[in-house]
Amino acid sequence: MHLSPLLLAALLALYTYATPISLANLNITTPPGTPPKEWSQLHRRAPVEIQESPLNFCFPPVSKKALAVVEKAKPKLNLNVFVFYGRRQNTAVLERYLRRNSIANGGLVTKVLFVLNLNKIKDNDDVDWINALAAKYPDFYEVTHTPPGDFNQNYAHITAKEDMYIKVDDDVVFILDGTFEAMVAELWTRRDWYLLSANVVGHTIFNGIHNRFGALRAWTLNTENSGIVTKPANETNWRVSHLPHVNVLKIKRIKTERDMPGSFYQRSYMKVDQEKGQEGLLKGSPLWLMKEGSFDACSWKSAHCAGAVHYSFFEAVEQNNTERYFFPTWDLHSSGYQRWSIHMFAFWGKDVMGLDIAGDDEQYLTVTYPEKVERHSGAVGNGLIAHLGYFTQEAVRTHTDVLDKYDALSREIEQTKLHGMACPGTF
Ligand SMILES: *[C@@H]1O[C@H](CO)[C@@H](O)[C@H](O)[C@H]1NC(C)=O
Ligand SMILES: *[C@@H]1O[C@H](CO)[C@@H](O)[C@H](O)[C@H]1NC(C)=O
Ligand SMILES: *[C@@H]1O[C@H](CO)[C@@H](O)[C@H](O)[C@H]1NC(C)=O
């Protein structure tokens, strides 16, 4: 079935508004839309120290050019992060990267506000979990909420004109060191950008760009018994080099998520070996079907593709080669005001404050408003993050071990210092 982008947007909006829950049943104490107490205090930041990775994998070091801008910006920079929070399983991974980038830890982030999304939260455990987290780190985390259906309130906490803000989805499950620095430096120097997106693995537009530049590798769902992961989540290995390979000639047709059996099995993927002389191809993997464009079926609504995208990324991390996902900063609106997915983006307070963002915030912020004020948005290529999946790709969460792998990866990275994972000889 072919769905037009408009129809998909309508379905998305419907989904977002479905099943609101009653506030009375939730443990919520803060008034809606409250800005955090310290949103607007400037902080002293320590100079950045880049160090060699003590682990058996490493990252490209933070860009020197970005660091130079950030050093100059620091005395005047106030960087606020907010997260539209829905699920603790995702956020448990994300928040490790947020704390890693806190000022206390040598990073740039002043404060994080979790805005509870009452259209998505299904149970009180999610509320209790985030409240407990905020209580544990009271100087860094705060919690507020938006009343169900009142989308306008989602941005009501943006009250400081001269502050920089970064919005992060709660299913962002990896943030490369240097991402905040890259985004801040770009927005600081290019005041003409309206919004600035990170470079997102698991994104309807950027997947196609990663494919174009040859960053992806051929992975496919392992539907053999060996593909069922029996280990408990806390013992998951994120590394993929030990996983089985399959010869491309053995794959008769590319499997889809309809082939994912059993709701409780955690399935893993296998690497597809190409024929001799065709090593760069993605044949046999669902990624072979990927096309550039914002509503490409592979990137936007196939869980099987999402899994393959993430396994490809785990391979790059294991090979110390996340850099192959980088691209130069580019203009997302160079061929018109096209909609793009806003999983992590930066902007100045004054550019979003007071706007009437009712309903579909993504449509408003990436199309309607920038078109009206004639401003383009950009994407910064060395600010690299991973986004688990769209609501259409729920099976990547329920039927694969991808989230467990990101969880394991984040636990290893958490043991090191921010900027303390640079590859030897690169800084
Ligand atoms: C609210 O939170 C408290 C403490 O975190 C907990 O004991 C209580 O059961 C929660 N209430 C509901 C309705 O879940
Ligand atoms: C990646 O870098 C780490 C840390 O420098 C090193 O120990 C490891 O051997 C490297 N791995 C590969 C596949 O090059
Ligand atoms: C994982 O969790 C299980 C059950 O809670 C526990 O017995 C086991 O020791 C944990 N493993 C690790 C590596 O923490």
From TrEMBL:
- Is the keyword Signal assigned to this protein? yes
Keywords from the UniProt entry: Signal
Q: Which domain of life is it from?
A: Eukaryota
Q: Report the leader peptide range.
A: 1-18
**Name of the protein this chain belongs to:** Glycosyltransferase family 31 protein
Cite the source lineage: Eukaryota, Fungi, Fungi incertae sedis, Chytridiomycota, Chytridiomycota incertae sedis
